[in-house]
Backbone:
């Protein structure tokens, strides 16, 4: 008889990936948890950022591990080579790009989510109800109807892609899923201000609409979209044979936090039968602060709204969300059910549409749990206070900048972003740019604080984008004092700027 026909297991020992000694792993797990809570508790005592030393870079280049290693030793290497060199975004003085802070509750819920490890593509299980509940809360917060649909995604980029895909599918005027863009005689175009996030362009490139399909509209002095210029462009583009399908509004541009007049954009969309997508990656959350809700007027008229929970709701990266007003249009864009995903009326494969019918991903993680646990633990009222606190602190920083004659505020503080620069007598534009780059680098490299840099009105500026629940007013004082000090230091004896 052939070996493979024999109905007995081979003699090899059977293996799995569970611990051989659960007690040892339990002890290690407790130690990790204690260490991580201490790490978070003491974060303010460490530098906001530090360079990874050459020796550590070397340590992190190793041959592929073929044989098992002791789990405790692996953890100890993490402690030695990884943990001390973070990006810095859990530190109270990190304000670079727009990166959230995370929370201890977020950490713990990631542990629980990974333990259950459900696949949130579909199926019948309680985690699915948790995601549905979170989406329901998001609809309520942003004033979307109960009949609307939504999806938790990796972040704002994916949320924009999903929203724009529904826009294209719904407004193309032909079956774009079936025929692609082949043979369609007119270029489909999408409109938004010059302050739009790059993820919108990437989405259009990916969807075959091309970066030429993205029509950038000039902005007003406050960096919001020039609505009249948009109207003219729509008219000219139509006359030139293009087919406008969508307007993208910014509820907080990434560069300066400028907010477009969303009511005006929604009106245009209504009049001209265009899809209204709002990129509210961080800014959408200003709507939960009553005295700021006016700035977000019109946002709830969006056909699709993209926003993050890992920026301004401080949840661990990754979690973003897209809401789509018309569930059917959302499903029509993405739903596809091969035989191996067919649904049953009973059992684990029942339960109506799957989350995979609303987006690109089939296998999806249980990111809903951190949202569910965080919202329940802190409550919306606490988030309201924190989002307000961040905006108040940004206004405070803006005022500090304005009171110093050597500092210049480079855009109005609309939400939570402050852009400014150091001025020095006798320096031209280029030299001032170089000076500010050097100030920023020194402040980062010394671990004092981590703002980032950008260009506003074609000048280099220091940018604070504030979605940090650990920041105190005193941290803003410290930043301003450090910028002044470092500026003076650079301009001191022996000063030389290379442009
Ligand atoms: C951050 C950001 C995005 C992208 O979101 P990710 O979560 O980083 O993918 C899109 N739009 C704006 C305005 C942003 O600030």
Residues:
């Amino acid at each position: 008889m052939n070996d493979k026909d024999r109905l007995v297991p081979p003699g090899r020992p059977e293996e799995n990936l569970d611990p051989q000694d659960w007690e040892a792993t339990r002890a290690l797990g407790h130690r990790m948890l204690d260490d991580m809570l201490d790490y978070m508790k003491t974060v303010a005592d460490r530098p906001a950022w530090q360079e990874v030393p050459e020796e550590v870079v070397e340590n992190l280049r190793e041959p592929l591990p073929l044989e098992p290693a002791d789990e405790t030793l692996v953890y100890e290497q993490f402690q030695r080579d990884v943990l001390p060199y973070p990006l810095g975004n859990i530190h109270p003085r990190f304000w670079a790009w727009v990166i959230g802070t995370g929370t201890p509750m977020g950490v713990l819920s990631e542990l629980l989510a990974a333990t259950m490890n459900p696949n949130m593509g579909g199926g019948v299980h309680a985690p699915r109800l948790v995601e549905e509940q979170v989406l329901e809360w998001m609809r309520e917060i942003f004033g979307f109807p109960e009949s609307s649909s939504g999806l938790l995604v990796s972040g704002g980029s994916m949320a924009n892609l999903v929203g724009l895909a529904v826009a294209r599918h719904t407004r193309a005027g032909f079956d774009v899923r079936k025929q692609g863009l082949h043979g369609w005689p007119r270029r489909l175009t999408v409109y938004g201000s010059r302050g739009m996030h790059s993820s919108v362009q990437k989405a259009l490139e990916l969807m075959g609409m091309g970066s030429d399909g993205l029509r950038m509209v000039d902005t007003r002095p406050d960096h919001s979209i020039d609505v009249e210029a948009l109207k003219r462009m729509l008219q000219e583009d139509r006359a030139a044979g293009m087919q406008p399908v969508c307007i993208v509004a910014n509820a907080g541009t990434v560069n300066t936090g400028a907010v477009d007049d969303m009511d005006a954009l929604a009106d245009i969309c209504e009049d001209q039968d265009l899809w209204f997508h709002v990129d509210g990656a961080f800014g959408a959350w200003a709507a939960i602060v009553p005295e700021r809700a006016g700035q977000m007027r019109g946002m709830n008229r969006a056909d699709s709204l993209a926003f993050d929970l890992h920026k301004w709701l401080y949840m661990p990266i990754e979690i973003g969300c897209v809401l789509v007003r018309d569930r059917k249009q959302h499903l029509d864009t993405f739903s596809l059910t091969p035989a191996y995903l067919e649904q049953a009326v009973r059992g684990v494969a029942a339960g109506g549409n799957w989350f995979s019918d609303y987006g690109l991903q089939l296998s999806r993680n249980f990111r809903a749990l951190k949202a569910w646990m965080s919202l329940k633990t802190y409550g919306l009222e606490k988030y309201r206070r924190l989002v307000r606190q961040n905006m108040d602190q940004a206004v405070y920083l803006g005022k500090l900048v304005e009171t110093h004659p050597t500092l210049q505020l480079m855009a109005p503080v609309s939400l939570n972003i402050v852009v400014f620069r150091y001025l020095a007598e006798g320096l031209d534009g280029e030299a001032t740019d170089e000076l500010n780059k050097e100030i920023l680098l020194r402040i980062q490299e010394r671990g004092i604080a981590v703002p980032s840099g950008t260009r506003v009105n074609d000048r280099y500026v220091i940018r604070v984008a504030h979605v940090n629940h650990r920041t105190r007013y005193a941290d803003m004082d410290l930043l301003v004092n450090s910028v002044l000090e470092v500026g003076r230091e650079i301009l001191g004896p022996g000063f030389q700027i290379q442009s």
Remarks:
- The chain has a mean pLDDT of 96.
- The CA atoms of residues 11 and 76 lie 36 Å apart.
- Residues 98, 155-157, 197, 199, 254, 279, 281-282, 308, 320 surround pyridoxal-5'-phosphate (CB under 6 Å).
- The first helix runs from residue 22 to 41.
